[in-house]
Amino acid sequence: MKRFVPSQFTLTRWIWFFSSIVLLSLPFLHPHCGCLALLAWVPFLILERDWYERGKKHRIWLCFLFFAVWNLLTIMWLRYATWVGALGALVGNTAQMGFVFLLFRAFRQHLDRQRAERSFKLLPYIFLVALWIAWEYFYTDSELSFPWLMLGNSFANTVKWIQWYEYTGTIGGTLWIWMVNLALFRVLVLYRAVSIFPDDRPAPRLRPAWLAGLVLLVIVPITASIIRYANYQEVENPREFVVLQPNIEPHVGKFKGYSRERQDQILLDLATAAVTDTTTFLVAPETFTWTIDEEQVLNFTTVRKFSDFLQQHPASNFIFGAITIHYYPWNTYPGSSENSRPTLTARKAQGYWYDTFNASLILDAAGKHDIFHKSKLVPFAEFLPFPEFISRFGSLAISLGGTVNSYGKQPEISVFTANDGTRIGTAICYESVYGDYCRGYVEKGAQVLTIITNDGWWRDTPGYRQHLSYARLRAIELRRSIARSANTGISALINQRGDIIARTNWWKESSLRGSLNLSEDVTFYVRHGDVIARIAQFLAALLSLYWLSFAWSSRLAREQRSNR
Q1: Whole-prediction pTM value?
Q2: Which pLDDT does position 458 carry in this prediction?
Q3: CA distances from 259 to 263, 267, 463 (A)
């Protein structure tokens, strides 16, 4: 086999550099390319080790360039919604991913100094994987959270391979990708397909062991998943859903083009054409209507129209998105005064404070209703990060009316109960990207899920297709059917195996009617959460202490030698 020596040709190195980026990006940009993630890191790992072996320590900037280009290719459709958010995601993701590699390189360099040798050592790569997974898990719960590019999301359109996500969650996919890539990297080195380590003389007996391990790492999870997919049977307990896609352009049409009355009529015409006497849920998209006073919901014009519609279909429940308002009068609401905000996100008006929420509502024919507030908000687009810090600036925060452009949040997940007793969780847009968050709906008793979203902010880009595919991951992790209503994106009905059983076209006024089964089963992932991530956090912390202990002992040794 002809050996690849990456230091020979500059052009070759750049080809390998960008080939790794393309292989990482394609699973997010094109359906059914998840398999590429299993080898995507290998070219970059080869180059990174080559730079290190040749003493090119300064080339750490190439790691940051690598992640910047990857992010540019996969998520820069965000600019159509918010340039600030797009730049924040690009800079934030690049900096954090690059920092993980910076720590990995520093850890390996320190171990090499201690051992006075350079050869393939597994420990630094274990540290890299643990640190990457720990970072992904931390990123799902940070103030500037944007976990869109979690590696496990690569398989969102390859659901037959990842039925085991019901045990591991998406982070299990991240671990699998890293393990296969590192095993392939090691096999290439052992078989001398690449020449990176000049003094490495691996024992021949290791070659078949590593090759067999690589084959098993690929074959076993896929085979087990395909068997699980083929044998998974949903319990027959159907409810009929009607999913509505009014296709109202969000930038201009929503607030300046169509009147509220016209938008209501579009939705009700779609509902009238699709509803039957057996329909349990009608689902409308995120922020379909706006400025609903939460204390007087039934007095709002759109809600009255929906209520009148339900009088003709008393078995049905209407779920829809809205911008709602909650008022805190200075003289009557506890904790509210002219100079005292009742919440961190409250804004000031004449005589009262108020919060706005990106909310979902459920309404039945009897007028019973409930409200759920979106809690996973989009940084900079829906909330200004670190409101606790900003609130310390007292008069400045008050003069700005609280935290500028921030929606309020709900402290914990809640589920809706329909008029027939069905318990349903409603994730609003961005919330559906978070597996660990969405399992909270099932913990609260949800038997089925809805996702209400807009998706038109991103125009005809990979964004809305990626967002749809992530719903399939939630279906597998939670084993819950999902009804997805997207104003201008793709609405869909998804079963508990993650199959899209019906869908609309993008940017088309449409509706879907179909049955989804309820489920009472609780998966291992719902019961225990991201176990792999917690183990990775512990392992990363343990190896960091190991690193620090070596650094401390080396410092003491140097001081002792200097004192002699």
Answers
A1: 0.92
A2: 82
A3: 6, 13, 28
